[in-house]
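Suppose a classmate hands you a notebook page containing two proteins, each written out with its sequence and a corresponding row of structure tokens. How would you begin to make sense of it? This section walks through that situation. The first entry is reproduced here exactly as it would appear on such a page.
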Amino acid sequence: MAYTVKNFKSKKAIREAIASGEKVEVFQPNGDLFGVKLPTNGEIALEGPHYPEPHRWYGTGKLVNGVLVSIK
């Protein structure tokens, strides 16, 4: 599971940011410790908001050149 760099509180907020042209980037917490690398292009699993808040949304996002272009 990955997070967006900006701590969005909902998927709706992410969709609005993408629609407005905002560059939405993602990261894998502790990815370096476990050897997990996010793809530059393709689908990824997302969740939020960031820990330690309880996760209230989960989704599948599409990355193009390392930038999130859509989320379901």
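The notebook's second entry, a different protein, reads as follows.
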Amino acid sequence: MTFLLDHDTPDDIEYSLRALGHETIHVRDALSKDAEDEAILGHAYARRWVVITCNRDDYLALARSHPHAGMILLIRRRTRVAERAALVQLLDKAGESGIANNINFA
């Protein structure tokens, strides 16, 4: 799968995803640094990329009115290790079919 990492997603999430064989793209590399959430979601949807973000409220609101290829709302935890572990566990349990076109929390 290909994941688009939102501005607020910790960079070290990328390492875990790549270790699992996924492709990652940072918003800062795909769009302008001031790209709004709606543009980010649309860009990802057009390419069938799953968005990973910590911006839960804004993306949940957008998902009500905008199509998406899937999103993972990353919950901030005490440590980055715990965040990565939650993400890996979600990917293990849900698999690609559970991630694509769905909203998941990790």
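A careful reader of the second entry would note: Residues 2-105 form a domain with the Rossmann fold fold (CATH 3.40.50).
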